[in-house]
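All the exercises in this workshop are built on plain-text protein records. A record pairs a protein's sequence with a compact description of its fold. Backbone structure tokens are a discrete shorthand for how the chain folds in space. Once this layout is familiar, the rest of the handout is easier to follow. As an example, a complete record with its sequence and its structure tokens follows.
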Amino acid sequence: MKVAIYCKRVPEEAVDSVLILVNELMSKNVQLYMNASFSDFLKSKNISGDFIIGSSLEDVDTAPDMLISIGGDGTILDTVTSIGDSEIPIVGFNTGRLGFLANNAKEDAKQIVEMLMNGNYELEQRSLLSLETNDKLFGENNFALNELTVHKKDSASMMTIHTYINDEYLNSYWADGLILATPTGSTAYSLSCGGPILIPQSKSFVINPIAPHNLSARPIIVSDDVEIKLRIEGREDEFLATLDSRTRTISNDTELKVVKSQFCINLVKFEEQNFYNTIRNKLLWGMDKRN
């Protein structure tokens, strides 16, 4: 089996668990691919092997069977850019904080490797959105697992986002910005802005204004088979557009077109894992002492 590992940094409290994970994989004769900084970390811990080092999956001749993302949800979002439409499954090994996507605890390193080797897992498909602009704003990486966000560039005046669904006018949001979230992204920035939680299979988008001036402006859920068009205007000359963690500057009067991507991301889901358990545990539902 060929397994890629992507890790930006290892917190001190997670070092032992990460080393257990790597040693377990090596004991199973797994061929490991990894980014250079993670290889340097292993060398500093006196672990060496026949690793294949590269800055991205494009540097690897043969695609790995799966990718282990060590970190938090942000690290998984970084790996999505490298994986693209390759359908390589992602295993989230959580050394971060909340971990909606990276929901495998670092304490379970041995069990995770055992279940991977025995095939005791399922693949859960997560939909993405794609952004189309005349100037190919994000190049080939014009997709996002969580959300597209447009927002003002500084703390000055608000912006106006004229929003259309299948060329039918929906609303002009006078706000600090607007979020278009996938079901996966519904538990990220959109949730922080008062948006609803969607289950991964809901086949929907969330349109959620950021700090709208009109209090009647509320999040709305639409089917993901529509085309959403945004026309941006305001007093400023420039605004920001963000796909997950990647940000670009856009000009006044920019038009953005959003559709569901033609490919999905595969997340590895082990036995007894499900979305309802995840949100209940991460959001501490039922932890009130009165329960």
Summary: The longest helix spans residues 15-27.
